[in-house]
Amino acid sequence: AQAPMWQPAQQPLLVLGGQNMSSTTQTPEHQHQKAPSAQVAKRDIGEDQVADAYAQRQPQPRATCLHFWLGSWGFGSEVNNLISAAVYCQSVDIPCVIDDSEWNSGKWEDYFICNPVATVGCPLSKWGRNNCVACNVRRMGVTATPGWFTVSAHAKVVNMQEKAVTARKIWNLTPWALNEIEFLNTDLSVPEQSIAVHVRRGDKVTGPTKETEATPIATYANAVRDVLSVPGATGASVIICSDDLTSVLELEKLLFQICPGVPIHYRKRSRTGHQQDEFNSQSLERRRELTLEFLADVEVMRRSLVCLCTFSSNIGRLVAVLRTQTLGSWEVPTISLDHAWT
User: Fold this and answer.
1) Which residues contact 113 (CB under 8 A, 6 or more apart)?
2) DSSP tag of 202
3) Phi/psi of residue 69, nearest 5 degrees
4) Most distant CA pair in the chain: distance in Å?
5) Neighbours of 173 (CB within 10 A)
6) 149 φ, ψ (degrees, to nearest 5)
7) Contact 101, 109 (CB under 8 A)
């Protein structure tokens, strides 16, 4: 079964009832559907159960297009969910429209070239036409529009290969973004053959928003050693991508002990684990700089010989679908050190 698009840290998402006041377009769900009962949406039921119950009780929305709202969540979470929404749209043959008016990273078209799979601007509302009946997909705190649960239910039956095809179509960087990323990665001195290691720390593994346990640094080091012993990977450099410099330095020290002589690369910028609230409080200019650095890391990971990551992280899952259509193939293997792809 396909994994849920998003795992709540403490509270499940609740279904929003009534008109979405931030949108001038009335959603079809609000035209002819009522939100699930309080029993279905109560806080001690997980997101999967809420989505399943909603899908069973509610008719499919009669929509001409889907409007996906990028918001204040992490980049990996937002884009993974956008990919799932685009896959859903292709299955019902309606446009997937990106609304980036509240996106914490700025404007979608700064980073990505739009295409028919996912576009900015509703094609049914252009040039004075008003034929749009939108299925809005939007999260706000612990609440979400009914369209969110429609996409979530559909995502559970989509395999990785199908999601990978759509992900590659959406991941089409603009010339400006490519130039910025090339500059950042030139400064990193990215070698031709490398083993990329992604270490997620910060609010993913600590604090009130903790979602999973931190994978021990020794686990990463042992995995690197094992990969370096495989024919074809011998002599490869190691690139560490992480939101926490302390973890990077700890891994570097351990690799020097168990893999003496291996070249190790990483960004020297001081950082202490990604905290989404802290990111959101930064100026737009600073958020754009950090987004570009994140994209540069993703490009390093997706182009590496092998990528060691964790599928509990949205970043690991995003990189996996961007790297290959067959998980675990030796051509471009992506290895999760905690959860399997489900």
Assistant:
1) 172, 173, 174
2) G
3) -95, 115
4) 66
5) 16
6) -75, -25
7) no
- The pLDDT value recorded for residue 331 is 53
Question: Residue 80 in contact with residue 298, Cβ under 8 Å?
Answer: no
What distance in Å separates the CA atoms of residue 41 and residue 77, rounded to the nearest whole number?
A: 22
Residues in the chain: 342
Residue 315 CB burial class (10 angstroms; 0-12, 13-18, ≥19): buried
Cα 163 from Cα 248, distance rounded (Å): 31
Lowest mean pLDDT among 30-44, 99-113, 173-187: 30-44
What amino acid is encoded at 336 in this protein?
S
Between the alpha carbon of residue 143 and those of residues 111, 161, 233, 305, the distances in Å are 28, 30, 46, 40
Tens-place pLDDT, residues 119-147: 998 887 766 567 788 899 999 888 899 99
Could you tell me the end-to-end alpha-carbon distance of the chain, in angstroms, rounded to an integer? 6
Where helices occur in 197-312 by DSSP H, the ranges are: 217-228, 245-258, 276-280, 284-303
Task: Please name every residue paired with 241 in a beta bridge, in sequence order, or none if there are none.
Answer: 198
